[in-house]
Specification:
binds zinc ion; alpha+beta; two-stranded antiparallel sheet
Length: 77
């Protein structure tokens, strides 16, 4: 797992104040996460991102979208 640094504002934060959001898997995520499920592989799921307290709730609302759809909205704010 990556250390908790907000993927929007790059703030390092305590895991208790923000959280990890899993977006809907797109084709690439499905491929990537299939590989991670194989024995011996460890890694960070490509559809999982850390968000600080400030951005967590906003990101949570968009977790039913794929990451590219969600980031388009999050970054336009
Ligand atoms: Zn943030």
């Amino acid at each position: 797992m990556k250390p908790p640094i907000c993927c929007l504002c790059n703030d390092r934060f305590e895991p208790s104040s923000g959280g990890l959001i899993y977006f809907t898997e797109d084709q690439d995520d499905k491929k990537h996460n299939e590989i991670l499920k194989q024995p011996g592989y460890t890694g960070h799921p490509s559809n999982a991102f850390w968000f600080c307290e400030k951005h967590y709730l906003q990101a949570k609302k968009l977790s039913n979208l794929t990451k590219s759809e969600a980031f388009k909205i999050l970054k336009s704010d």
